[in-house]
Amino acid sequence: MRRESHYDLPIIQARLRRDAKSPMTSAPTAAGHSNSTSTHHGLPVPITVARGDGIGPEIMDATLRILAAAGARLAIEEIEIGEKVYARGNTAGIDPSSWDSLRRTKVFLKAPITTPQGGGVKSLNVTTRKALGLYANVRPCAAYAPFVPTRHPKMDVVIIRENEEDTYAGIEHQQTDEVVQCLKLISRPGCERIVRYAFEYAVQNGRKKVTCFTKDNIMKLTDGLFHKVFDEIGAEYPQIEKEHWIVDIGAAKLADSPEDFDVVVMPNLYGDILSDVAAQLTGSVGLAGSSNIGSQCAMFEAIHGSAPRRAGKDSANPSGLLHGAILMLIHIGQSDIAEKVHNAWLRTIEDGVHTDDVYREGTSSKRVGTRAFADAVIARLGQTPVKLQAVRYQNTATRTSSATRRPRATKELIGVDVFLHWDEADRDPRQLGARLERVAAGLSGVRLKMISNRGVKVYPDGFPETFCTDHWRCRFVSTTADAPINFESVLQILAAVHAAKLEVIKTEHLYRFNGVKSYSLGQGE
Ligand code: NAD
């Protein structure tokens, strides 16, 4: 079965319901054999599967066996990723032909891969996220106490991490001997999509509260935008409680009392760190799965790696990947199967049937390998947990939204920051200031407003105690207070600075958007 059109969940769900009585079809896998799961009702949904490296093939096999026994309606296409592909000299770890399958099925169930050591190799995860536009990373982190020991038995948090932007745009430069930079890019459409996704997720999963973490007391423009969008979009969801924490104290609270949080949305870097913290707080990183969702495609996986030392020993826990697969089933509209699998898994855990990593004398009753664990889950399909809370899933795949475009604002250029590489005169800012004042004196209509070093104003009136690197930001503005300048003035400044034998490394324009100054001041400016 081929679907050319863009993945549209409600339409697929409607079709599944309409076709409820039609006979099953099974689609061939890329390997040429039928791997469709057993018949249930509705058409099988094409998905792409990669067995990965290390423990990947074993946990994928266990997961697919459980899904098949539960009656998941899947038509599986297999692709190869990871070690073997890297070894063929493909630095992306994925063959070009595999993208065809991913673009066709738009649903990717992925086992962990081993990332080769050394340079020149790109992270497959980052490539996949960016290439397929998977902007939301969703990681449910629930405790399974007392069966998996944790200090936070009541925690049940979902971390929703922005997945494409922030410092992960991967735009880095070395500009001077002493200073390197990483650009942190935050876009309004990016914020809107992830924040809306978090609220939609909360509504559709019966969650009560969405918390936002940012560092907007320091990064007023970038994190400030994320927070602002959170407030704007949050207002559209009056039934959901909303709160915002500065990420440092928010992280401390999350680590101390995760049971106080419900859904937490945050920019990429904080989300990367805190989603691991949250998973660890549940007692085992090895149990968590995650989804990476875009408006057209989605990828589902365990959060752990390929555990190469456990490979081939039938000792890995397949639960993380199984949880990824449960999220996938919900996404493709097979919530009934997701519920059946999840409840059977919960029952297995509370019956004390545990793999090595979770096994504890006293709470566990039976130590099993990967295959026997899968068999134990299969044997419990149709059962619900007695002590742990059973899950209920309606058809609750979270709606995604496409990015909305912003109309152009009234934008005025009111200055320019000229960055210099300068290491003369014992790095005395007064010396640099004097040279630049002479440069400005030769120009008409602009003046030097200040010089900063690593964001701290050092001229005029700097402190001699401030440590200065060889990276200087020199701010030029109009001689008339707050008046616009034009681009020709910028070119004249650059030419004059260059003629004064100072080394320009980059410029940043200072703008007013719709009358509001839209750049940060130097500390002390
Ligand atoms: P890891 O998650 O593979 O292993 C960390 C520890 O957890 C090990 O002790 C391992 O035995 C244990 N563990 C992990 N999964 C387990 C499971 N399912 N059952 C039982 N025990 C389990 O992390 P690592 O050792 O840092 O990385 C190994 C490789 O995996 C590296 O090449 C790394 O780059 C890669 N990796 C891949 C992904 C991915 O593909 N999404 C994610 C993380 C790491």
Brief rundown of the structure:
By secondary structure, the protein is of the alpha/beta class. Helix content is 32%, strand content 21%. The chain is elongated, with a radius of gyration of 27 Å.
Describe how the helices and strands are arranged.
Layout: H1 9-18, E1 45-50, H2 56-70, E2 74-79, H3 83-87, H4 96-105, E3 107-110, H5 124-131, E4 136-142, E5 156-162, E6 172-174, E7 180-182, H6 188-204, E8 209-214, H7 222-234, E9 241-246, H8 247-256, E10 263-266, H9 268-281, E11 289-293, E12 298-302, H10 319-331, H11 335-350, E13 353-355, E14 366-368, H12 370-379, E15 411-421, H13 429-441, E16 446-453, E17 456-459, E18 471-478, H14 487-499, E19 503-513, E20 516-517
Parallel strand pairs: 1-2, 1-3, 3-12, 5-10, 8-9, 8-10, 13-14
Antiparallel strand pairs: 4-5, 4-11, 6-7, 11-12, 15-18, 15-19, 16-17, 16-18, 19-20
Residues 55, 59, 112-115, 125, 286, 301, 304-310, 316-317, 320, 357 line the site of nicotinamide-adenine-dinucleotide.
Beta percentage is 15-25%
Strand order of the largest sheet: 2-1-3-12-11-4-5-10-8-9
Rg is: 27 Å
Name the bound molecules.
nicotinamide-adenine-dinucleotide
Total DSSP helices: 14
Q: What share of residues is helical?
A: 25-40%
- How far apart lie the N and C ends? 63 Å
Mean pLDDT: 89
Structural class: alpha/beta
CA-based shape: elongated
Low-confidence stretches: 1-40
Q: Could you state the oligomeric state of the chains shown? A: single chain
Number of strands: 20
Give the biggest beta sheet: 10 strands, mixed
